[in-house]
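Minutes, project huddle
Topic: does the predicted pose make sense with flavin-adenine dinucleotide bound?
PN asked that the exact inputs be recorded in the minutes so nobody has to dig through chat later. Recorded below.
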Amino acid sequence: MSRVLIAGAGPAGIMAALRLSESLPGSQITIVEKGKPLEDRICPLISIGRCANCRPCSMVSGWGGAGAYSDGKLNVTGAVGGLLPQLLGESHFDSLVPTIMEIFRQHGAPAETDNSLDKREVEDMRRKATLLGMKLITFPIVHLGTDKTRYVLGRMYETLLKRGVQVLFGSSLIDLVVKDGRVIGGVLEDGRTIDADFVILAVGRSGADDLTRWVKKLGLTFETNPVDIGVRVEVPAEVLDPFTETLYEVKLEYYSKAFEDRVRTFCMNPHGEVVKENLDDVITVNGHSYKEKQLPNTNFAVLVSTHFTEPFKDPVAYGKHVARLANLLSDGIIVQRLGDLVSGRRSTWERIRRSLVRPSLQDAVPGDLNAVIPRRQMESIVEFLMLMDKFAPGVGSRDTLLYGVEVKFYSMRPKLTSSLESEVQNLYMVGDGAGITRGLFQAAMSGVVVADSIRERIL
Ligand SMILES: Cc1cc2nc3c(=O)[nH]c(=O)nc-3n(C[C@H](O)[C@H](O)[C@H](O)COP(=O)(O)OP(=O)(O)OC[C@H]3O[C@@H](n4cnc5c(N)ncnc54)[C@H](O)[C@@H]3O)c2cc1C
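Predicted holo structure (tokens), as shared on screen:
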């Protein structure tokens, strides 16, 4: 009987366990998760609007990983959300798409997508973007919504328990046991060693520091990824309804004139709300929407990618440093009207109250993002918003709200094979923690890829 140890119960770890327990029913699978079961994951930031600095943070840790509190938008594509098409090859990626969707559906996800892409109006939108020098990226989206996401995750847990998978909550993997270039187990925080023939590291962004430590300790090859810094933008939903009603999410990409940096929209939430996110030691901003509840505003992020080369190799520290500046000035998140930002003055509650957009995040502090975000990113963000205003009139309004800082850290990327196996034999690295995915769909697919590889090796 083969023993498989999975560290992390996010979409990558859960999907690996689901696929493996189905295709190799006799195997002994153990998931160790440093967070709590789904029903015990109560984030004070969501329940009472204040972060209590829980350790581990229930927003990103526990059954379902960072996905449990997420908006549950499955971007069914290789165009965004990770590097899997490059790593696996386009045809392998495409062949796995129906498998991933089927697993989600079996556990309660809807069969239909939330957008229709074959319409004439989509072509018109694409042409309009092209004329402005922007690229409109379209793909099928299945929107579970924050509420349905937890339901699907709960059903996946039940399936795994029925199949005899062992799940240990409150258990952190702290080290790996490697012998003769091959992994043979993992060490938990409480001192226990779990022997295993295969180990899958699915630790997500919250476990990226652990993964970096192991990679360095084992002397493995790795690359650094860019860091994305930006703001969350909030507009009246009417401004983007003509686009979101067809596309659901407007994914625009542009290279700024100011610095030729890549700027893009990210994680659009039609009729949604802006939320705080606690990344262990910094507070950043994010957004989500509900499947059943329609709120008056639409929000999305505008992110600028910065890729450091020599000699600096710590993009995560850089991103956190910028986010910490906002935390220092506001004790959390700064909110500013676009008109105030462009005029070089801070926002006040008085000015914000006069504006068309009612802020959905109530405990942000009016301030000046010019004092926080470096010129390189800020100029590109303003240039992008003014251009986007020509695509969707109203985005560049004086009253548009900007919340800062939104930062997307991507973990360092260890060298992996096309089966996502590391340079240590039988040691696999998947999901956001390995720096190869940036969203639910590709994270889930990475779990299935390693499960298939392990199955093939055993058989
Ligand atoms: C607020 C929010 C909204 C989002 N919305 C969307 C969305 O709508 N669509 C989308 O595609 N993506 C979204 N994302 C991103 C998505 O959630 C992640 O890309 C995805 O969850 C990554 O999956 P993963 O399995 O790699 O890692 P994670 O989901 O981060 O899971 C990793 C798990 O490993 C555990 N862990 C870490 N270290 C250890 C250790 N040493 N030992 C044991 N366990 C450990 C963690 O506690 C965690 O539970 C959102 C993220 C956030 C935070």
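Observations noted during the meeting:
- The CA atoms of residues 174 and 210 lie 7 Å apart.
- The mean pLDDT is 93.
No decisions taken; revisit at the next huddle.
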